[in-house]
Design a protein that fits this description.
globular, 311 residues, alpha/beta, 43% helix
């Protein structure tokens, strides 16, 4: 398999190399449920859609290099959630900032931009949004690409769970402190640098752009609300597992094995639910795309090329 060769350090086949050369990524904004939702888009309008769902603390910016690599044969769309990137960031009394509310926004966004069906590429926060969307509209789902996003408690690093659990049980200044620490520049940089084996491929632009978003007035309150609502995702893990086991969607897992938050038990669980899943592990951390973008792009293209044609 091409993906396996790439993971082993082989050169990128010419069929996949250079595809991004003449592909232009457009920056757009549409109104969805009264909010301005920013998104990046590239590729033919009539091509099959790949919907990229970003993680914390990033935005569609995390897919800036992947988008043109996939766009030669696919319509690639990457929205920013409310409170992230260049999308609207209303105050807490004007938007709920729950994962259910964000899923509704993304759902209505796909309808607004004419994405009638799609392959979901999900990382971190993109997992909860994507799984909710898949369960809500299984008829639209053509396949899943999961990069460091879990659907089981065992997939979490236990040390991270110890930080989150008190905040979920009783929210106050004391239990908020570990979460506030996650929103600092050092923590944001850590999310990109920890576990990487290719530090020279890391662009400081990644964590600098993310931190600029976190540092906007009022954004700390927004992020705290997202973190507090994350417990609703954990409650839905059994439902997501049941969906995967029943639906058996085409599934590609591309995973940074050195992730400080999500462990390989998350991969094992997904593979157990969908035995036909294709798995590629990389010597990277939470944001594996930053250092293994070429490999993940090539593996994703190979996976997408094998999916059944749209009628």
């Amino acid at each position: 398999m091409i993906g396996a060769l790439l993971a082993a350090g082989a050169s990128i086949p010419s069929v996949f190399a250079g595809q991004a050369a003449n592909v232009e990524t457009l920056s757009k904004t549409v109104k969805v449920d009264g909010l301005d939702i920013f998104y990046r888009e590239a590729g033919p309008k009539d091509a099959p859609v790949v919907l990229l769902l970003h993680g914390f603390p990033s935005s569609s910016h995390m897919y800036r290099n992947l988008i043109p690599r996939l766009a030669a044969h696919y319509r690639v769309i990457a929205p920013d959630y409310p409170g992230f990137g260049y999308s609207s960031a209303p105050t807490l009394d004007h938007f709920a900032y729950t994962f259910g509310a964000v899923t509704d926004i993304v759902d209505h966004f796909t309808q607004t931009v004419g994405a009638k069906n799609y392959v979901l590429f999900m990382q971190d926060y993109g997992g909860p949004v994507g799984f909710r969307l898949a369960v809500k509209h299984p008829e639209r789902l053509r396949g899943l690409i999961i990069q460091n996003a879990v659907a089981n408690v065992e997939g979490w690093n236990p040390d991270v769970v110890k930080q989150l659990s008190p905040f979920w049980v009783k929210r106050n200044a004391e239990t908020e402190k570990p979460i506030r620490d996650i929103l600092t520049p050092d923590a944001t940089k850590f999310e990109y640098t920890h576990g990487t084996t290719r530090p020279d491929k890391l662009s400081p632009d990644a964590w600098t752009v993310d931190q600029a978003g976190l540092d906007r007035p009022g954004n700390v309150d927004i992020q705290l609300q997202y973190f507090h609502d994350y417990q609703t995702n954990v409650a839905l893990y059994p439902a997501w597992g049941a969906f995967l086991k029943s639906a058996q969607p085409p599934l590609l897992i591309v995973w940074g094995r050195n992730d400080p938050y999500f462990t390989l038990k998350g991969v094992d669980y997904l593979k157990e639910l969908v035995p036909g899943a294709e798995v590629h592990l990389y010597d990277a951390g939470h944001f594996a795309l930053e250092t293994y973008g070429d490999e993940i792009a090539a593996t994703s293209l190979e996976f997408l090329s094998r999916l059944p044609k749209i009628n």
